[in-house]
Amino acid sequence: MKSSKPMANEDKQLVAKNSMRFNRFLIFRYVTALFLFVNLYWGILSLVHWTVVGMIPIVLMVMDGCILVEQTQKYWQQSNRLQVTKYVFWIQTGVNVMGVFLVLVGQQQRIVPFVNETGRWLLLIMFMLGLLICLFVQRKIWLIEHDRDKYLTYLKAFEGYGGK
C-alpha cells in the first residue's frame, strides 16, 4: 500500500524546473568527475615515487570535492555564479600548462615521476587534452555567468510553456 499522496501538478512543475536549472551545470559535474579520477590515479601512482610534488593531485582532488559541493548547492540555490568551479578550473589549467612545459623541456619526471622517456609524448597529449578541457569549461562558465548559454534559452522556453 502506498502511504504517500500523489504529487500535485504545481509540485511536479517545481521539481521539473529545479531539475532543469540543475542540469544547466551538468557538464561541470561530469568534467569534475573526470578530473577527480585522473587526479586519483595520478596520486596513487605518485605514492611509489613520493615527493612533495605528489601533493598536487591530492590537493586537486580536495578542490574537485569543493566543486562538487558547490554544484550540489545549485539544486537549491538558483544562481549562475560559479566562483569555486571557476577558480579550481583555473588552477587545474595552470597545472596542465606546467605539465606541458615540463614535458616539452624534458623534465616530466618532476611532476609525474612514474613516467619515463617512452611515455613522454603520451603524457604531453594527456596534459594538452586536460588543458583544452579546462579552457572549454572556462568558456562554459563565462557563458553561464553572463546568461549567454544555449541551455538558458531552453530553460526559459520550458518555463514559458508552464513547465509542462
What's this, in brief?
With 164 residues, this protein is mainly alpha-helical. Helices cover 70% and strands 0% of the residues.
Radius of gyration over all CA atoms, rounded: 20 Å
Alpha-beta content class = mainly alpha
Low-confidence stretches: none
Order of helices and strands: HHHHHH
Tell me the strand percentage band: under 5%
**Average pLDDT metric:** 90
Helix content, binned percent: 55-70%
Q: Distance between the terminal alpha carbons, to the nearest Å?
A: 29 Å
Q: Count up the domains.
A: 1
Keywords: Membrane, Transmembrane, Transmembrane helix
Walkthrough of the structure:
- With 164 residues, the protein is mostly helical.
- It has one domain.
- The protein has six helices and no strands.
- The longest helix is centred in the C-terminal third of the chain and has 26 residues, at 120-145.
- The chain is elongated and about 60 Å long.
Keywords:
164 residues; mainly alpha; transmembrane helix; membrane; transmembrane
SSE diagram, text form:
Elements: H1 9-23, H2 26-46, H3 55-73, H4 83-104, H5 120-145, H6 150-160
Helix pairs in contact: 2-3, 3-4, 4-5
